[in-house]
């Protein structure tokens, strides 16, 4: 990139005169982009977004009174300009000309497809030239030179994202900055054709002439389709009001329902007698149009959030942690009292009403203390730092860390301390990206890299502050009624026959109908109602139907829906939108999720505080005009900070409660389901105590009540116990869902017998569960289960001490390769149909690398924790441990249960028999595989058909 001098202030002022009628504010071209301003938080504890202007265009062009006079339109042929740069008078006389591309092999599309366009962002940038852009390997938007098409696809996927972020354009030069109004007006119309054909109209809405450099459509699947691709010698000159119109056909563009597509335009302002070399990059999102797109959202009133108290650790907590909870003669009497309380928390992992608040608060402090110590190990002294060209982004090699920074996450806070002579300076920033090789930090100001003496990574304590606040709000009467319930009052019970089911599938499931009726009628009140949902039993569907029934049958009540993860909360929101009007649902995101907005379903974004691709803090209209609010457990705590009026919610749902700490589950309960000593809302806890509970890095906490979820602990109380005579739960307080709609019988029978006392019933549809039956690689053609023994070498990563197994990884790749190439029983298998589950972080990254090398971008690889609550048609498990006398944390029965219950149609488990059989539960599973003749001691090779060659990837086993 050529180095360009900054424009002087007087020259900028002169240039601004040419833009005074443009939709820009004064000094925007002179003002450098400052992420400290863009990301700055107000004095309150929660950031507020500035008002933004969102423009929306429609399929029919609209005349604009601001145009000086009507201008003719220009059309180009086959993506090539038919006009080179000329004088302005000639521009105004040009007429539309040219033909469009035609294809005949694509399917016929519907004739009535309409599209809506929303302006996303406009960026002013300094020039960054390449001698020549190669569209097969260079990024035409941020003008980054890449080595090959693979690097381009990776760049589009990782740097720009699914909805095409313009952040890389902002970051490569600190003077680049966004502006809040568009330069162009864009219309898109899909034409009736046998191919995917769009009529695209781009109008210059500014008061100066613009030279159109390029226009591309991004399909959301890492591919750019050119509309106009000019160069320095071949630009399209667009006077004010001028319209460029093009009819373009995309042979390879795949239209998908609900997908967001991007239109990215690059142009240069042409200023008479001035060598003005700034660029304009403008992005639009478009999708299929619906009635909701026509609605204009009114301005909202933001709610003030009370500041959270600082999180401080007591002296006793620090003393006990320092001595590793062992008796010490220096202990005070208070220290010894806390030590006795800790011992009580380890005995049978039981909480008691008299010590409930004190015990939760104490263990929470120990978790914070441990994390602070862990983060302290990431502090770097005299670090080696590299700067991304022209930006405030700095790379830190992971080789400098004493141990792998596994607890760091993107958007985490970081502090650079620099020493220049006697002057010490501090610069704060955030973590932008974490890779196995480096941590990228985006700082609020420029840093002299040679003077940085220390890098400190800071722990975000917000969640712990909200948890502490929730505990403080739980008075003794509330603790007794909600956390240790003994009696219930309940409401009047309506007959099931009075319900009109929204989803007719519910009407054939007795457990679901009973659970929904009892939730609606608050039969467990004031105790929480528990929905016990084993894998694949329709827990989420039951919750959605229950919420919809409350909405329709109780028109005056409001509902709070929470979940332990954003993924679960988004899934609930997406399903609720199918049964409740959009305007009655509000999905509340934390500010930390703003950068990930392009991964969220468009429909969910539209009913959230991220609508319009901008962040909005909590607003009065969102809470008090929407009857259903959806958030994560932690984010729900912001409602308390906003002082939501007392008794606003009548129902509080917590999904995946079995995987949350008890103190986290209190956040949406304390102050939202309660007011003072009064309980104003029914609490519904949904989850499975037989699956993974809270996850900790700190081994000590795993031995205490901190590792037991509220759902699991309540189920051990007498109120929720099974009847001694019927061996059934009391349906007024708990329902066990029994019908598994996910998997083949063989894939659930093991977990059914071991974890669920044989109470589950296999009810998956034949098309779903029998997809892999009779597959030629199955040892037993009628059982879609394979246990593939290996004896590879287990290795330990020197950096993270996590384990990996190359032999098992290769065997995983063999199976995946065969499935993608040959399918299942002549049915094609997509990458997204396959999930790879392994129990070690290093094996996850190792297999991910192997998949990316083979361009398997959509094969998902993750841990059991990441797959909890998820499912895939095909699951391949790598157990990693080999030729060893113990299985480590593979011995956790809940982890095994999660792993074995994710597959719908085919489960392949790869592992070392010798090692796994050291654990009683794994030994039971292997015996189960043997009884079903499902053990494959080799990777069979088929007989060649009609002289065909055999794929090398389908050769013999590596064992």
From TrEMBL:
Record SUPFAM superfamilies: P-loop containing nucleoside triphosphate hydrolases
Taxonomy, superkingdom: Eukaryota
Cross-referenced PROSITE patterns: ZINC_FINGER_C2H2_1
Domain C2H2-type: 139-160
Keywords: RNA-mediated gene silencing
Residue ranges with Basic and acidic residues bias: 25-44
Region feature Disordered, mapped onto this chain: 23-113
Biased composition (Polar residues): 69-86, 103-113
Database matches in Gene3D superfamilies: P-loop containing nucleotide triphosphate hydrolases
InterPro entries, A to Z: DNA2/NAM7-like (IPR045055), DNA2/NAM7-like_C (IPR041679), DNA2/NAM7_AAA_11 (IPR041677), MOV-10/SDE3_DEXXQ/H-box (IPR026122), P-loop_NTPase (IPR027417), SF1_C_Upf1 (IPR047187), Znf_C2H2_type (IPR013087)
Name of the molecule in the record: C2H2-type domain-containing protein
Organism (species): Aedes albopictus (Asian tiger mosquito)
């Amino acid at each position: 990139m050529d180095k360009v001098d900054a424009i002087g202030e007087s020259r900028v002022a002169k240039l601004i005169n040419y833009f005074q009628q443009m939709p820009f504010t004064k000094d925007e071209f002179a003002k450098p982009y400052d992420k400290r301003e863009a990301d700055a938080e107000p004095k309150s504890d929660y950031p507020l977004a500035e008002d933004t202007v969102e423009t929306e265009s429609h399929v029919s062009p609209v005349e604009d009174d601001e145009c000086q006079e009507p201008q003719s339109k220009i059309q180009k042929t086959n993506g090539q300009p038919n006009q080179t740069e000329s004088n302005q008078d000639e521009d105004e006389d040009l007429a539309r000309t040219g033909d469009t591309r035609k294809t005949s092999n694509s399917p016929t599309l519907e004739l009535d497809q309409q599209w809506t366009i929303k302006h996303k962002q406009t960026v002013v940038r300094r020039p960054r030239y390449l001698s020549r852009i190669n569209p097969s390997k260079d990024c035409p938007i941020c003008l980054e030179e890449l080595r090959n098409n693979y690097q381009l696809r990776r760049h589009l996927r990782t740097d720009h994202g699914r909805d095409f972020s313009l952040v890389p354009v902002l970051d490569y030069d600190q003077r680049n900055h966004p502006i809040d109004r568009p330069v162009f007006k864009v219309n898109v119309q899909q034409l009736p054709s046998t191919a995917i054909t769009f009529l695209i109209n781009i109008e210059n809405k500014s008061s100066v002439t613009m030279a159109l450099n390029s226009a591309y459509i991004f399909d959301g699947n890492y591919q750019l389709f050119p509309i106009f691709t000019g160069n320095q010698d071949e630009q399209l000159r667009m006077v004010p009001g001028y319209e460029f119109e093009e009819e373009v056909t995309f042979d390879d563009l795949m239209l998908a329902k609900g997908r967001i597509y991007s239109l990215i335009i690059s142009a240069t302002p042409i200023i008479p007698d001035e060598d003005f070399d700034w660029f304009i990059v403008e992005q639009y999102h478009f999708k299929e149009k619906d009635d909701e797109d026509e609605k204009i959202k009114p301005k909202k009133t933001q709610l003030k959030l009370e500041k959270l108290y600082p999180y401080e650790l007591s002296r006793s907590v620090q003393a006990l942690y320092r001595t590793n909870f062992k008796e010490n003669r220096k202990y005070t009497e208070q220290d010894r009292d806390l030590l006795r309380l800790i011992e009580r928390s380890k005995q049978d992992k039981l909480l008691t009403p008299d010590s409930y608040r004190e015990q939760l608060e104490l263990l929470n402090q120990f978790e914070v203390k441990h994390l602070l110590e862990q983060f302290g190990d990431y502090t770097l002294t005299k670090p080696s730092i590299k700067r991304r060209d022209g930006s405030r982004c700095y790379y830190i090699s992971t080789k400098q860390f004493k141990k792998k920074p596994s607890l760091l996450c993107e958007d985490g806070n970081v502090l650079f301390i620099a020493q220049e002579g006697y002057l010490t300076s501090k610069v704060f920033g955030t973590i932008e990206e974490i890779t196995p090789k480096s941590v990228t930090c985006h700082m609020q100001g420029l840093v002299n890299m040679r003077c940085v003496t220390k890098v400190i990574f800071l722990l975000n304590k917000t969640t712990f502050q909200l948890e502490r606040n929730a505990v403080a709000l739980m008075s003794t009467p509330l603790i007794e009624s909600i956390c240790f319930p003994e009696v219930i009052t309940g409401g009047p019970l309506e007959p099931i026959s009075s319900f009109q089911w929204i989803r007719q599938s519910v009407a054939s499931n007795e457990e679901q109908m009973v659970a929904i009726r009892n939730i609606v009628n608050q039969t467990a009140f004031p105790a929480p109602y528990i929905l016990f949902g084993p894998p694949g039993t329709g827990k989420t569907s039951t919750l959605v139907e229950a919420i919809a029934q409350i909405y329709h049958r109780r028109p005056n009540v409001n509902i709070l829906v929470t979940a332990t993860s954003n993924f679960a909360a988004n899934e609930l929101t997406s399903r609720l939108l199918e049964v409740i009007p959009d305007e009655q649902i509000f999905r509340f995101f934390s500010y930390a999720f703003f950068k990930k907005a392009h991964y969220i379903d468009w429909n969910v974004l539209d009913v959230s505080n991220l609508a319009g691709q901008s962040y909005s803090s909590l607003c009065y209209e969102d809470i008090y005009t929407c009857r259903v609010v959806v958030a994560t457990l932690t984010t729900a705590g912001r409602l308390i900070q906003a002082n939501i009026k007392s008794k606003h919610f009548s129902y509080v749902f917590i999904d995946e409660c079995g995987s949350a700490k008890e103190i986290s589950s209190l956040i949406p309960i304390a102050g939202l389901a309660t007011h003072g000593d009064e309980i104003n809302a029914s609490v519904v806890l949904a989850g499975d105590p037989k699956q993974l509970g809270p996850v900790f890095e700190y081994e000590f906490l795993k031995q205490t009540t901190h590792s037991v979820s509220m759902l699991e602990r309540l189920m051990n109380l007498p109120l929720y116990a099974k009847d001694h005579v019927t061996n059934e739960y009391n349906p007024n307080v708990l329902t066990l869902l029994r019908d598994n709609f996910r998997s083949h019988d063989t894939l659930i029978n093991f977990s059914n017998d071991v974890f669920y006392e044989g109470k589950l019933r296999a009810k998956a549809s034949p098309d779903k569960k029998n997809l892999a039956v009779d597959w030629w690689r199955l040892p037993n053609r009628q059982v879609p289960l394979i246990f593939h023994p290996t004896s590879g070498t287990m290795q330990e990563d020197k950096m993270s001490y996590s384990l990996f197994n190359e032999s098992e990884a290769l065997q995983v790749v063999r199976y995946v390769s065969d499935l993608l190439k040959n399918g299942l029983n002549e049915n094609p298998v997509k990458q997204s149909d396959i999930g790879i589950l392994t129990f070690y972080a290093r094996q996850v990254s190792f297999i991910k690398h192997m998949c990316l090398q083979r361009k398997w971008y959509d094969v998902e690889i993750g841990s059991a924790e990441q797959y909890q609550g998820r499912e895939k048609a095909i699951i391949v498990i790598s157990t990693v441990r080999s030729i060893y006398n113990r299985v480590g944390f593979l011995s956790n029965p809940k982890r095994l249960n999660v792993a074995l219950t994710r597959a719908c149609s085919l489960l392949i488990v790869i592992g070392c028999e010798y090692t796994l059989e050291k654990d009683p539960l794994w030994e039971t599973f292997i015996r189960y595989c043997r009884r079903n003749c499902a053990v494959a001691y080799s990777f069979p090779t088929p007989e060649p058909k009609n002289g065909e060659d055999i794929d090398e990837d389908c050769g013999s086993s590596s064992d």
